[in-house]
Design goal:
single chain; 334 residues; alpha/beta; 2 domains; six-stranded mixed beta sheet; four-stranded mixed beta sheet
Length: 334
Amino acid sequence: MGKTKLFRLSLINYKQMKLQILIFTLVVVLFLSCNESKDVARPVVDASNLASAELLQIFPAKHSLNKNISQALIDANSDAILEFIGLNTGLTVNFGSGETDGVPVGIPYTLVGENEDSVNIKYSVYVSQSDTGALPIPIDAPIEGNGNSRVIVVDVFNSMLYELAGAKVVNGEWNASAGAKFNIATGRARREGWISADAAGLPIFPCLVRYPEVETGVIDHAIRFTLPQKNIYAGYVFPARHNLQGTTNKNQLPFGAKLKLKADFDISGFSKTNQVILKAMQSYGLILADVGKSMQISGAPSEKWNNEDLKELNKVKVSDFEVIKLGKIRRKKQ
C-alpha cells in the first residue's frame, strides 16, 4: 500500500476520532447541565393563586390515579355491590363556594414556594405510620372543617405534597393524628399497610375536583369519594395501602376500588361545569378513599363554584355506575 493511501486512511481515522471525542464531550456537558438544580426550569409560584398548582403534572400520566378506565373490565360482582350501596343513592358534593361554620366548603389546600420554613409535626394516633421530619407547612394553613381537620400543602418548587389529618395548632405547633408526604413527580405509593390523611393510605390532593382544572375543560384523574363503613370491605386494592378493621362481605367495596360512570349516561342536560366532572367519571372514575357519607365526592373550595348547580349532580345515581374489576384484595392487621 502506498504512503499516500496510508496517509489518507490515517487522516480519516483521525477525523473520526475527533468527531467521537466531540460527541462524547457534548454528552457529558449536557448531562452535567441537566443535573444542576439551578438550571432546572420550575414553574413560578404564587401562593395566593390556587390555579398555579395546575402548572404541575400531579403524578406521572401512567400513574394508577391518572389511568383512563373507560375500556376497563367490569367486576363480575358489580351489580350486587352497587345494589348493596343502594341503587337510588345519588351523588353529593362536599365542595363549593362560601363557608360553613366559618370554614370553606370542601378540602382546602395551600401552595408554598422555595423559601417556606419547615416545622416539626407532633403526631398522636398513627405515630409509627406517619412521615416524620420537618415539613414546610405554614402555621396559618387552612384546615378542613367537618371534623376531619385535614391540611394539604403543595410544595410546587420541590414537587412534593404534604397532608395531615386531625390537624390543629397547639402552642404555635402543628399537632396531627397522622401525616404523609408524596413525591408529585414519581407518585410513589406509601408503604403497604400505612395510613395517610385518608383511611385508604391514598393522597388526597391528586383526587380532588379543583375549579382551575374544570376551567381548562378536562379533569384527567380519578375523583375521591366516600362510603359509610357498612359498605366498605375490610381490605384494599392497589393503589390504596391501608384498610379498616371490620367485615369482609363480598358485596362490600374495598378501599382503592373504582366506579365508572356508564359510557351511555347522557350528560347533555347538565351544565358545562358539571359535564367536565361527569366526563372525568366516565374516563377516570371514582376511587374509594375514606369513610364518610354515601357517594360523596371531594373537591377544593372556590368562590367560582355555583352551589346550586353542583346540587344537580345528585341526579346521578349509583345505578348509573359500574364497578371496575377489583383484582386481588389485600388485608393488613392494624
